[in-house]
Amino acid sequence: MSAPATAAPGAPVVELDLEDLRRDPYPAYAELRRTAPLAWVPSVGRHLLTRHEDIVRAEKLPEVFSSREEGSLLLRTVGPNMLREDDPDHRRLRSAAEPPTRPRQVRDLWAGAFEKTAHDLLDGIAGRGEADLIADFAEPLAAANLALVLGLRTASAADVSDWSRAMMAANGNYADDPDVWLRAERATRAIEDAVAEAAEAARREPDGSVISSMVHAAAPVELSEIQNNVKVIIGGGVNEPRDVFGVGAWALLNRPEVLDRVLADPAAWKRVFEETARWVSPIGMYPRQLTEAYEIAGVTLPAGSRVALVIASGNRDESVFERAGEFDPDRPHRPHLAFGGGPHFCMGAWVARHEVSALAWPLIFSRLRGLRLAEHPDDRLDGWVFRGLTSLNVTWQAA
């Protein structure tokens, strides 16, 4: 299955600047949904599928829209992995890795340690009266929790955070920056060493972690498969909760009347989480490759065609979400696409939901009295393949 490097016959060709997308992709996405819901974009080297309806349709057809894309950036970064596999290999790997991330396991095995880590991080900053809540709280929280769930016994939160940033940069390296590839290679080698050590320890003493679950899976999983899939999980497992936390906190601090309603109703944190994930999708798109010719959005794509399912665009589709560009936790519930769909629905969704909506947000707003945004030029939304706040500088009344 070779991938055509040009537009499918009849597909509109749309020139998009990657720097413009990085700053703010949503105007371009709105125009694509309106005029060219499937368009070949030369700077990305694939067709972008941008309407909610079409994305959902593609996700329901994994036998046509295959995860096994030739030469994908993720494959180049981490090697063969479950995100770029179809069934039955995908099912074998996912079944081995997933049990420790299910809701009951999150509650019973990990919630207490998650809460302790959050309090420890807040203890370290509470007396300062100011912080960058991304660098000082959200990222180390997500990284420490992820190291625990994965079973990386000798990796620090800083290690996991650095590895995640290096790999996520490579996964979005459509500009083919050689320095980005070099940093990713260093990170993946370090992860392989850490996983090999953790797998050997888990073989002797099972600990309920993802690595332990894969080591003791009913269907055998090779060490190289464990290593590659831990690399994948480290990428999304840090950036998704970190970026949902940051964007949601920033959105609420910019909307005091919404924040007041949420603080008066603790059950609302779950709605804030889902709305934040919809409004600014931390993972904005993922690739697929067609196994056979297929017509979608008015264009017949030949077998081998490369497509990006732009879930960030689908989550702003006005035909599904009224006032789609607004942040509104009280909007009527409609399923969003931020965690993907079908067999590749995000394995870490329940971990992220718990650590952000049940712990991180309620704790910062209860412990950091008078929390407010600090004017800081570095605080901005950034990215299109992966999108989040660069920083979140805040002040509060230190005790």
Brief summary:
The chain is built from 15 helices and 12 strands. The protein is an alpha+beta fold. It has one domain: Cytochrome P450 (Cytochrome p450, Orthogonal Bundle).
What key phrases describe this protein's structure?
3-stranded antiparallel beta sheet; 5-stranded mixed beta sheet; 15 helices; 399 residues; 12 strands; Cytochrome p450; alpha+beta
Question: What does the model show?
Answer:
The protein has 399 residues and is α+β, with helices and mostly antiparallel strands. The protein has one domain: Orthogonal Bundle (Cytochrome p450), CATH 1.10.630.10. Helices cover 50% and strands 9% of the residues. It contains 15 helices and 12 strands. It has a 5-stranded mixed beta sheet, with helices on one face. A 3-stranded antiparallel beta sheet has the order 4-12-9. β10 and β11 form a beta hairpin. α9 packs across α11. The protein is globular and about 65 Å long. 50% of the residues are buried. The mean pLDDT is 93.
Give me the secondary-structure topology.
Elements: H1 18-23, H2 26-35, E1 38-41, E2 46-49, H3 52-59, E3 65-66, H4 73-78, H5 89-97, H6 103-125, E4 130-132, H7 134-150, H8 157-171, H9 178-204, H10 210-215, H11 223-253, H12 256-263, H13 268-279, E5 286-290, E6 294-296, E7 299-301, E8 306-309, H14 311-314, H15 349-367, E9 372-373, E10 381-382, E11 388-389, E12 393-395
Parallel strand pairs: 2-8
Antiparallel strand pairs: 1-2, 3-5, 4-12, 5-8, 6-7, 9-12, 10-11
Helix pairs in contact: 6-7, 6-15, 7-8, 7-11, 8-9, 8-11, 9-11, 11-13, 11-15, 13-15
